[in-house]
Design a protein that fits this description.
Layout (H helix, E strand, L loop, with lengths): L3 H23 L3 H22 L3 H13 L5 E2 L1 H15 L13 H7 L2 E6 L8 E7 L5
Antiparallel strand pairs: 1-3, 2-3
Helix pairs in contact: 1-2, 3-4
């Protein structure tokens, strides 16, 4: 993925901020810690901006593809292909910055897709049926 280094850096920054917040409980130099946290958050925001830079174009491409799949049952192999396609177009593993959820559900939620999971009696893998799209809310 073209953005995997950025994703990893964002996760590391999130962990560092968490560690700093814990350190504030035990140390007395709160102002210095807050300054470091502020700087880390600035760096994180720059990385997030870079990570999401092409999302509008990527969303349009993925949505066009998803529209062709509306009301079609997708088995396990087709779901994996769809997930790989989405990740390739967006150029990253996770749908949301700083999160570790990299599965199809996370991406469908991010893309505002309405879907149904149907259990299949002969399989331990549910069938996915895309039914439409929710409107975006700003």
């Amino acid at each position: 993925m073209k953005s995997s280094a950025i994703e990893k850096r964002i996760v590391k920054i999130d962990q560092a901020v968490q560690a700093m917040n814990i350190a504030k409980k035990y140390l007395s130099n709160h102002q210095e810690i807050e300054a470091v946290i502020l700087e880390l958050n600035r760096e994180r925001q720059l990385l997030v901006n870079d990570l999401y830079r092409d999302d509008k174009k990527s969303y349009a491409t993925v949505r066009d593809h998803l529209e062709t799949l509306i009301d079609q049952p997708l088995d396990a192999a087709m779901q994996k292909e769809l997930l790989d396609f989405i990740k390739e177009i967006f150029g990253r593993q996770a749908a949301t910055d700083g999160k570790t959820a990299t599965g199809l559900n996370a991406w469908l939620k991010k893309l505002n897709v309405i879907c149904e999971w149907q259990t299949t009696p002969d399989s331990d893998w549910a069938t996915l049926v895309l039914t439409g799209f929710k409107p975006f809310q700003n």
